[in-house]
Fold this protein.
Amino acid sequence: MIDLISRVTSKSSMHLLFDKLYTIRQKKPSLKALIVLSVLKPERLEELIQDKKKLSKDYKEITLTLLEQEFYKLHLKKEIRGEYFKVDALVDISNEGSWVIFTNEKRYFVKHVLEAFFDGLYPEVSRVYFNYSQIQRFLDIIRDAYRGQSILTHIAIRRKPRKPIKEEARKGTLVLWELGAEEELKRQSKAWKIWIDRLSFDVKGEAEMLLLQASITGNGLCGLKYGNFTAFYNNVILNLINLGFYWRDFYSKRERRVENGFVKLRPYSIRYPFEFEEEHLARLPEYFSRDYLCSVIHGGNPYFVANLCDYQDGSSFGLTILSNVVTVTPMLRATPSALWKLSSRIQEFIGEGEIIDVTI
């Protein structure tokens, strides 16, 4: 493992080091960039952690050291099954409303130490959640930013069956290449619940010259394998932050309100290419009970109605499922981060769908 983090003393030195390292064709760990949304001031992190009992219990060391204005070094040490694992990372908060966390640690440590840490900071820190169709559109932005001639992708899709089948086929990972992937995904979605695990992509310019080898997950973790880091930062990371802001705005200002004696609602829907059946709905209350207080009003087929309240955030929602549409109706308190998380949880259970506004 190349120790990158200790060699960085400022944001400019980070760019110089990463520019040099990732434009050399040699075997090395990919650089990971985790994007989260937050207006949290770093000096409040210690106070916040003290209120998060699980974080205080799981993490034996948490230090955030200022390197220069809006640029920090983060050190984490976590106990997992009796073993201690450390992750060092760089934190850039120069883009207002977001944190970008860089590390070259292995994916296992990134998932179970770094990502788990920021998951534990919810709701003060919000993860981003993108489904496959949103990421596909994002690739067009990247192609234009690099002025690339083509993007070759391969995509790892996690899947589970929609209906009971033989045990050995109950789950798995499907890898698709760009050619025909859209049609294959449509076919798979009829029999399987699918969601994106990771999408890797190469951007090529004139004469098939390789400009970038990178990856992205559905919850905002970017990877750089080859390419100019500064271009990657400007073209991928900053554009992904803007995409996060776009969807945060989509979920904003949806709380139930009363204007001139009339109740105003701003629901949104998730549409699917199939109609729900009883087995799709029967386990929903148990599934939602992990994160929400769930009160089922009608649990029959084909109509499901429930009220949900986020345990950590306090946001409340009405949830209805009919035919091939899931509709979320925010109530008196419904924060953008809570609504975005709920959309992710729904798709995690049912599979990815098309998220659209509802006009009423």
Observations:
- Residues 132-218 form one domain.
- The CA atoms of residues 39 and 96 lie 7 Å apart.
- The chain has ten helices and 19 strands.
